[in-house]
Design brief:
Elements (H helix, E strand, L loop, with lengths): L1 H38 L6 H4 L4 E8 L9 E9 L13 E7 L11 E7 L2 H9 L2 E2 L6 E3 L11 H5 L2 E7 L2 E4 L5 E5 L1 H8 L5 H6 L10 H10 L9
Helix pairs in contact: 1-5, 1-7
């Protein structure tokens, strides 16, 4: 009986630590992905990144996880601080990307997704509830290239611009039909307590974890100022 109780106690201690380590690894991977993408010759246009309120990074999404109604992405979202998103990049909130087109082909290798939230409406909506891309929030494949811009009618109107990186190829990709939502369970694992995505971003309810420092430093260096006039 004592051995059984001891085993249960150890399990209860180990599981939260394992879950926290898993989310910390996810945050660290997101930082690595963002740094590699921004250091690549053909990357997100500077003029586009400078107008983004928030960035969502979903590292290492695997093909076998895709299915109708199935979950196929877990990652992090970081936003510029303040109610108008004009402050420095802040503590991440965990996110989940689900559903999507049954015809989406990622190939056999892991694919990284990056989504830019281009206005406060899309950012605030996603922080509070599940949002359908292309439905609740307009979405489009993002332009690529350092000197490119979001000059087309489609990208200028889009609230969310999305990108993918697979087998070394970085390109804009449409994720219409997918849903993006806060992953509150993962937030609890990462921060060790119940905390909402909105409180993380707007109320600074938690300190920046060590696992996110590379991600935030990368974004702060690449785009220290929000140049959007729409907020």
């Amino acid at each position: 009986m004592k051995k059984t109780l001891l085993g249960v106690s150890l399990t209860l201690l180990v599981l939260p630590a394992f879950a926290q380590d898993k989310e910390q690894d996810r945050v660290e991977n997101a930082g690595t992905v963002m740094k590699e993408i921004l250091n690549a010759p053909d990357s997100i246009p500077q003029s586009v990144l400078d107008k983004a309120d928030c960035v969502v990074i979903l590292p290492s999404v695997l093909k076998f996880a895709i299915g109708i109604g199935g979950s196929y992405g877990r990652g992090v979202m970081t936003c510029r601080g303040g109610s108008t998103f004009h402050g420095p990049w802040g503590a991440p909130t965990m996110m989940a990307l689900e559903g999507g087109s049954a015809g989406l082909q990622l190939g056999g290798n892991a694919t990284d997704f990056v989504l830019l939230l281009m206005n406060s409406r899309s950012a605030k909506s996603i922080l509070s509830s599940k949002v359908k891309l292309g439905g609740d929030a307009s979405a489009a494949a993002g332009p690529v290239g350092r000197t490119a811009s979001a000059a087309s009618d489609v990208t200028m109107r889009a609230e969310i611009l999305s990108y993918s990186r697979a087998r070394g190829l970085f390109a804009g990709i449409s994720l219409e039909g997918s849903t993006l939502r806060p992953d509150n369970g993962a937030n609890k694992n990462l921060y060790g307590k119940e905390v909402s995505a909105s409180d993380i971003v707007f109320k600074k309810a938690v300190p920046v974890p060590d696992s996110a420092k590379n991600l935030l430093a990368t974004l702060q260096k690449a785009s220290p100022t929000n140049k959007s006039k729409g907020n």
